[in-house]
Amino acid sequence: MGASSFVGQHLIPLLLDKGFSVVGFSRKPPENSEGIEWRQVPMEPLSQEEIPLWISVAPIWVLPDYFRFFQAHKAQRVVALSSTSRFTKENSSDPQERRVAQRLREAEEHFTSWANKNKVSWIILRPTLIYDWGKDKNLTEVARFIEKFGFFPVFGKAEGLRQPIHASDVAAASLEALLKKERANKAYNI
After folding, report:
1. Which of 39, 72, 145, 163 shows its CA 20 to 30 Å from the CA of 138?
2. Which string of b and e fits 156-185 if b means at least 16 CB within 10 Å?
3. Rounded-to-integer distance, Cα 66 and Cα 24, Å
4. Burial code of 33-65, b = ≥16 C-beta within 10 A, e = fewer?
């Protein structure tokens, strides 16, 4: 899920290198891509096709829309991305940030509850700030500002701690989570 995202673009070659048969789901699949079968979302379950292993790099709050789809394809394991914002924005002075934290918490709880009820192994990965040079709207914008003006303004005490993680590292962690059965039914901050 989310295969055409910048994390998905790093994940697909890793899966192919490991010998997986890859079916990429995206709202906007590319025209063609070697070694991968593309499907557009939203979608209906495919006839009797089993897809036991899933990695979702789409926002975790969209997963409930696909629970029926996962079940129809006999999902056995789902790796999903959330965010450390679940914790870091929980007590923010900004109401919008608090809503994001609550939305993430509720989405994680809904996902894990569904997975446990349906005996689907799950892993949640919580990256902080994902970047991919030229594709993200986080560090790329900061870098552009610095290149243009030679500095970056910081207002206040700058107490917001962030540890950016590259999209390729998130993809590698997602694959590792898929492969390591002993790490099942846990969430990890990455």
Report:
1. 39
2. eeeeeeeeebbbbbbbebbbbbbeeeeeee
3. 14
4. beebebeebeeeeeeeeebeebbbbbbbbebee
Distance CA 172, CA 160 (A): 26
Q: Which amino acid is at 76?
A: Q
Beta bridge partners, 187, equal 124
Note the pLDDT tens digit of each residue in 18-51. 999 998 888 877 776 778 888 877 666 566 788 9
- C-beta of residue 57 within 8 angstroms of C-beta of residue 7: yes
Q: How far apart are CA 177 and CA 159, in angstroms?
A: 31
Residue 181 CA to chain centroid, in angstroms? 19
